[in-house]
Specification:
There is one protein chain. With 480 residues, this protein is α+β, with helices and mostly antiparallel strands. The chain is 31% helix and 25% strand. It contains 15 helices and 19 strands. The protein has a 5-stranded mixed β-sheet, sandwiched between helices. A 5-stranded antiparallel β-sheet has the order 15-19-18-17-16, with no helix packed on it. The two termini are 65 Å apart.
């Protein structure tokens, strides 16, 4: 096996930056602080703040002395966990063995994925590009053991170790702080004059166990691969929910585009990991509960003709729907919800299809029209179980599956709203008669014999007369 360790050293700050609007410059001077109200300390700080000398573990008072215009945000482990789960879902698209056991990293088995995605350098480049688009600060390392890959990622970004012998050599030179040991154990080993892992491995095993317990020896064995290291594996949920809360009210749809794109990007990354698509999603716009106590969140439903997972396609549809709608109050939070996630089936293509340029497929065009004009403006036709021509057709949702067609006689492509007298006698009768006797159950009784005829002008028409054959001809439709 070959494990990749995705180390997330700035997870809390990344979560904050992802939730910020495009025009919010205050995020650059943000620090995460502990929730200890008596003596808050710095958990992490943005690069501009770190450049001023602010470090992790400093008191807030000391940090404010170094960089007065600080914006403080309490550390939110729940927000970090949501982002970790989103990234685990993204990683699940590359491997079925993904673990969230480590608090600041994601462990991914990639040995079985290289045959599909190519050699590690190519896969690494792809990962870094996608993680950059997601706004994630990261470090990567690969090794035959999960703990070994994590230790190497802490020491240096981009390390690749392909076998156990090389792994042992790489681990031997690492400082003991990188081995994920308990802080008290690290302090004790330092007190003994040990600084590198090779010095710890050189200690007599029996004495090491007697002093520090069997757990330390087991951890060191799993680090090198001498003992199996079973990991709890992640499984993606069956629905998607992501939410952004804003520090200020947003009053224009244009300002909502940036956070909306971020949330739709998260949705599409989640769908990619499941090899699924989305056909129905909801945009939920929350308003200030103190200012608008009686106003419920505004919910916009987005329906698609077929399951989609392309970021630009889904985002464009959401923007069109947003522009065509009216949000009754300023927005304090935005959420994207999708409960029904059907399998994604790409549109079939011929092997020698020419490039279509900017041409849209019918499902994509229908989705755009529905988003801009409203769901009622785009529809399909279906048959009714009623033989009368005026009642034989009905509207149906263009996204729903068509009902099976009943076997009928020839029908015109253009049915007149009401029959009109035919000018003169038909030149000849091409087909018919087809007798229709129906409508007695609702008072709309009719008894007609329908014919396909050719008029004196050479046109093909659909006309009828009474079943007695004495009534005049009435025109009811035209054939193309």
């Amino acid at each position: 096996m070959l494990w990749a360790a995705l180390l997330l050293p700035r997870l809390g700050l990344d979560a904050l930056a992802r939730n910020a609007t495009e025009t919010d410059d205050r995020i650059r001077s943000t620090v995460l602080i502990s929730r200890d109200q008596a003596r808050p300390t710095i958990i992490d700080a943005m690069p501009a703040v770190r450049a001023a000398g602010v470090r992790r573990g400093q008191t807030l008072a000391a940090a404010q002395a170094l960089c007065p215009p600080l914006k403080t945000v309490p550390h939110d482990p729940a927000q970090e966990q949501k982002l970790r789960e989103l990234l685990a879902g993204w990683a699940y698209g590359y491997s079925s063995q993904v673990s969230l056991r480590e608090a600041d990293a994601i462990l991914i088995e990639v040995g079985g994925s290289l045959g599909l995605f190519g050699p590690w350098p190519r896969l690494e480049q792809r990962w870094r590009s996608e993680l950059g688009e997601l706004g994630i600060t990261h470090r990567l390392a690969v090794a035959p053991t999960a703990l070994g890959a994590l230790a190497l990622a802490r020491a240096q970004d981009g390390v690749l170790v392909g076998n156990h012998a090389t792994l042992r050599q790489a681990l031997d030179v690492l400082p003991i702080e990188y081995a994920q040991l308990d802080v008290l154990v690290v302090d004790a080993l330092r007190g003994m004059g040990l600084s590198r892992l090779r010095e710890v491995y050189a200690l007599p095993r029996a004495g090491l166990i007697r002093r520090f317990g069997a757990a330390l020896a087991d951890h060191l064995d799993r680090l090198r691969g001498a003992t199996p290291d079973p990991l709890p594996l992640y499984r993606p949920p069956d629905r998607f929910h992501a939410r952004m809360e804003f520090d200020h009210e947003i009053e224009s749809s244009e300002a909502l585009r940036f956070p909306l794109r971020r949330l739709i990007g998260d949705l599409c990354a989640f769908l990619q990991s499941r090899d699924g698509g989305v056909q129905q999603l909801d945009l939920v716009f929350e308003h200030d509960p103190l200012q608008f106590k009686q106003l419920a969140p505004t919910r916009l439903a987005i329906g698609l003709q077929s399951p989609q997972r392309d970021l630009q396609t889904v985002f464009d549809l959401c923007v069109l729907r947003l522009q065509a709608s009216s949000i009754p109050a300023p927005v304090r939070a935005l959420a994207v919800q999708a409960a029904n996630l059907p399998p994604f089936v790409p549109l079939s293509r011929d092997l020698f299809d020419e490039a279509r340029g900017a041409q849209l497929d019918w499902p994509q065009l229908a989705d755009r029209l529905r988003s801009r004009l409203g769901p009622e403006a785009v529809y399909a036709l279906a048959t009714n179980d009623d033989p009368r021509p005026e009642h034989a057709w009905r509207r149906r949702d263009a996204a729903s599956s068509p009902s099976p067609l009943r076997k009928l006689g020839p029908r015109p492509s253009w049915l007149l709203r009401r029959p009109l007298p035919l000018r003169g006698e038909p030149r000849r009768i091409l087909a018919g008669p087809e007798r229709i006797e129906a409508g007695w159950w609702d008072g709309g009784d009719l008894r007609r014999d329908y014919y396909v005829i050719e008029t004196r002008e050479g046109q093909r028409a659909w006309a009828f007369r009474g079943i007695q054959g004495e009534e005049p001809w009435l025109l009811h439709g035209w054939f193309a």
